[in-house]
Amino acid sequence: MKKSLIALSSILMLVGTASAQKVAFEEYDLDNGLHVILHNDQSAPVVITSVMYHVGSKDENPERTGFAHFFEHLLFEGTENIKRGEWFKIVTANGGTNNANTSEDRTFYFEVFPSNSLEIGLWMESERLMHPVINQIGVDTQNEVVKEEKRLRVDNQPYGSLIAEVKKNMFKVHPYRWAPIGSMEHLDAATLAEFQAFNKKFYSPNNAVLVVAGQIDIAQTKAWIQKYFGPIPRGEKITKQTFVEEPITETIRARYEDPNIQIPMVVASYRTPSMKTRDARILDMISTYLSNGKSSKLYKKIVDDKKMALQIGAFNYSQEDYGQYILYGMPQGTATSEDLIKEIDEEIVKIQNELISEKDFQKLQNIYENNYVNNNASVEGVAENLASFYLLYGDVNLINTEIEMYRSITREEIKNTAKKYLNPNQRLILDYVPGKDKAQN
């Protein structure tokens, strides 16, 4: 009874904390189509200015892959009013930091400044959108930067091609079949006119969301946003192409040789629905149940107890159109990749045929309550979540309500979702093995 009361007390504390974490925001549109979201947080004298564009690697020409990621770098080159090489100097001189990242679905730029430098951040992001300088010297410079990044993070990184190899085999028609880093041959072959056309098409106010979060004065912030972003002309309407993959009905077998590794890895990957669906959230919970921490089902059984693997894991790789549910393991001793798949499958079959225990289910609920609080614990996290929920999910208030979806998931749904998606005839088995050195791009 005492343990039950302690557990109940912990749950109530988490729920109470989550409720107190509700993110207040205001949103509106400028005449040019730019969506604006403001979040006032007076707890610290910092502010983040961020712009997320609805363009990622899935929007590229199959013969010109890597453009979206390339622009993540290129749009720091300078503008008509920020000379080449001056961007980072301005940020640093004003006590700020900045960065950007690209996925299959979107590109995100942001600056974090002391709150008294908000106007500078807004001006800089408006400059990136209104007056970018895209010339041959910038393209050539960033081409070398991207090549070096690919060498470091992919070509010479152990298991660096893992996700790319999974995607290549899981998708036949959807642009998710290539990685955001793209092809260096495609970037080398592209003309300056092609880069300029890509910028004109996708980097427009009506294809973006501006999020300002932190210690701000709402009225003053709106005035500055109108001043700097209001004059930017609306871009042409973008029509997104829809790609539909045929269901996987029998196991796909693939093999990849990586010269950077000495220990093989086996991967089982299942194609799953859009991250916007309820099923995607349930699959999140299943991956947490199977492999979150050393007390999880797969780790305890295969790594700790049976000592068949050096590492084991599962994660739901969620994306806007489709997702991939990925399980992986690194065999050790006399265990083989086939042995690991057999052990993993046994745990999946248990989920498909039996309800997980109430204790394990409550543990999952606690983890997701904690994740919710942590995800909104900084202005940077809040800004990116606000942008993502608007641009990719179509509902900004999911920043406050998505936790309710996780709370409402039942043990029966976990069982049924595992049955629906995690079957041997619906997956890829990838043998990712050591290979000989080979020429890199």
TrEMBL record:
Domain (Peptidase M16 C-terminal): residue spans on this chain: 190-367
Calcium among keywords: no
Residue ranges annotated for the Peptidase M16 N-terminal domain, each copy included: 36-175
Entry keyword set: Hydrolase, Metalloprotease, Protease, Signal, Zinc
Organism domain of life: Bacteria
The family this protein is said to belong to: Belongs to the peptidase M16 family.
Name of protein: Putative Zn-dependent peptidase
Taxonomic source organism: Flavobacterium dankookense
Lineage of the species this protein comes from: Bacteria, Pseudomonadati, Bacteroidota, Flavobacteriia, Flavobacteriales
